[in-house]
């Protein structure tokens, strides 16, 4: 441990749910193991792994009404050395944090900060957006109107002015932590200082080193993840229709686009080849990897990272994915799988076919991926690099405070 620090995490939820929650929880847990103190200011409870979160965050402040005053109270009560913000759209909270003068770090999990719709792609055309947040978001994108995933009316209004204010506030953070070069470029495109941006990929824990696929004649293709429109499962199904090799495809996950994709598979005559098995716990996924020949990542929205890629490469599996967002940070075409031009269904099918036809090639690309994640993406290194960055920022701010006091 460099020196003992007190970290106040800030997040919109409390408890397990998705990737952002998993990252916040494991980071805090590991920092606590290193001797640091961790507290959290948070939004609603998810009801999942509550005991685990309570054990990690011994100080907790529920932000449920007057959030500006409540975050100020959290700072006064916990007295953090540094605040680590994860997902938090409440501008009153962000404004209070910026006004506190404390060292601030933000983990950028997705496109929420700089995209009014949070997707960075057009819902109808599915084209990836390359614009910075501005008037172009209003026309032709029409991003001022978005889906409301909460209770009430199905649509909601999004304020461009509020989004620009959010960006301006986040520019004042000491560091913005991103997961890929793609996301760093998105921040730069929105006026962030390159000196305040650091890339720290959210590395999953090492899988069982003794488990490898048998790359059998079953020709099993696996998709694991949410089944929502941006994940392109319908595009995957259309590419499967073009395969020349016999195959089986298992799709693991749930989501709003699942029913549509099931009907599409039936319509294309693939019902006997494509099986939707729903949500599978993380610890059970390995049972499917044992027989897998290739993992398909079919996202057509710009993935911030697609952590599933690192997870499956730890089992020596090759990946085929579209070149969308930050995937190219870890997927090199022809080395550990294939990076297919965006929405090129024909090429996507050809690459899947090539790995089903040539199992020696599939094994070699899988081993290349295993070597990559072993050398470049180590969990302990990820945590240590975050800890070192936090310590540097705390020391920088302490030095500034001393100089300011001396000049006064």
Strand content of the residues, in percent? Answer: 15-25%
Largest sheet properties: 7 strands, parallel
The total tally of domains equals 2
Relative helix content: 25-40%
- Proper CATH architecture of the largest domain: 3-Layer(aba) Sandwich
CATH superfamily of the largest domain: Glycogen Phosphorylase B
Radius of gyration: 22 Å
- Measured between the Cα atoms of the first and last residue, the distance is 34 Å
What does this entry show, briefly?
The protein folds into two domains: 131 residues, Rossmann fold, CATH 3.40.50.20; 157 residues, Rossmann fold (3-Layer(aba) Sandwich), CATH 3.40.50.2000.
How does this model look, in words?
Helix 3 runs parallel beside helix 4 (91-100), helix 7 (233-240) packs parallel to helix 8 (258-267) and helix 11 (345-357) packs across helix 12. Helix 6 (181-189) links the parallel strand 8 and strand 9. The protein is of the alpha/beta class and 408 residues long. 37% of the residues lie in helices and 16% in strands. It is globular and about 70 Å long. It is built from 13 helices and 15 strands. It folds into two domains: 6-107 and 379-407, Rossmann fold; 220-376, Rossmann fold, CATH 3.40.50. The strands form three sheets. It has a seven-stranded parallel beta sheet, with helices on both faces. The protein has helices spanning 19-33, 50-56, 67-78, 91-100, 160-170, 181-189, 233-240, 258-267, 286-289, 308-313, 345-357, 359-376, 379-407, and strands at residues 6-11, 37-42, 59-62, 82-85, 104-107, 145-147, 155-157, 175-178, 197-199, 220-224, 248-252, 274-278, 292-297, 319-322, 337-340. The mean pLDDT is 92.
């Amino acid at each position: 441990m460099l020196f003992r620090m007190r970290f106040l995490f800030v997040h919109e939820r409390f408890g397990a749910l998705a990737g952002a929650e998993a990252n916040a929880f494991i980071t805090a847990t590991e920092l606590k193991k290193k001797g640091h103190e961790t507290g959290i200011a948070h939004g609603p409870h998810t009801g999942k792994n509550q005991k685990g979160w309570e054990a990690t965050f011994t100080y907790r402040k529920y932000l449920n009404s007057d959030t500006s005053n409540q975050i100020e109270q959290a700072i006064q009560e916990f007295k953090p050395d540094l605040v680590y913000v994860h997902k938090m759209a409440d501008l009153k909270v962000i404004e209070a944090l910026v006004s506190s003068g404390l060292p601030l770090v933000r983990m950028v999990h997705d496109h929420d900060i700089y995209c009014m719709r949070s997707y960075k792609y057009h819902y109808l055309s599915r084209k990836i957006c390359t614009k910075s947040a501005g008037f172009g978001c209003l026309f032709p994108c029409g991003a001022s109107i978005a889906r409301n995933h909460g209770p009430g009316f199905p649509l909601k209004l999004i304020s461009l002015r509020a989004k620009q204010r959010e960006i301006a506030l986040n520019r004042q953070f000491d560091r913005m932590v991103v997961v890929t070069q793609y996301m760093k470029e998105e921040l730069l495109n929105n006026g962030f200082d390159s000196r305040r941006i650091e890339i720290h990929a959210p590395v999953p824990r090492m899988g069982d080193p003794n488990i490898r696929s048998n790359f059998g004649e079953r020709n099993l293709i696996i998709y694991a993840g949410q089944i929502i429109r941006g994940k392109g499962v319908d595009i995957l199904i259309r590419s499967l229709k073009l395969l020349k090799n016999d195959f089986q495809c298992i799709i693991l996950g749930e989501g709003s686009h699942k029913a549509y994709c099931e009907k599409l598979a039936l319509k294309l005559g693939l019902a006997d080849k494509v099986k939707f098995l729903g949500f599978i716990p993380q610890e059970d996924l390995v049972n499917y990897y044992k027989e897998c020949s290739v993992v398909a990542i079919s996202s057509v929205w710009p993935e911030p990272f697609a952590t599933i890629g690192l997870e499956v490469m730890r089992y020596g599996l090759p990946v085929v994915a579209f070149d969308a967002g930050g995937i190219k940070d870890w997927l090199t075409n022809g080395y550990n799988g294939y990076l297919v031009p965006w929405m090129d269904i024909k090429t996507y099918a050809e690459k899947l076919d090539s790995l089903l036809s040539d199992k020696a090639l599939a094994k070699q690309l899988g081993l290349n991926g295993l070597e990559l994640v072993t050398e470049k993406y180590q969990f302990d290194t990820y945590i240590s690099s975050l800890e070192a960055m936090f310590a540097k920022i705390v020391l920088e701010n302490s030095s500034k405070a001393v100089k300011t006091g001396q000049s006064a």
